[in-house]
Amino acid sequence: MLRLEAWVAELRLQEPFRISTGVSEKTRSLIVRLTAPDGLEGWGEACPSRTVLGETLEMVVEAARGLGAVSVDYTSLEAVHEYTWSLRAPSSLAAALDMALLDLYGKAVGRPVWRLLGGYRDSIETDVTIGLMEPEEQAKRALRFVEEGFRVLKLKLGLEPEKDVERVRRVRDAVGEGVRIRVDANQGWSVEDAIRVIDRIAGYDVELVEQPVRWDDWEGLRRVRRESPVPVALDESVKTPADALKAIQMEAADIINIKLMKTRGLTGAVRVAHVSEAAGVKNMIGCYGETRLGITAHVHAAQALRNILYYDTDCDLLTAEQAFTGGAGVEKGVRRAGEKPGLGDLKPVWSKLTKVL
Question: Is the entire prediction scored with pTM above 0.70?
Answer without folding.
Answer: yes
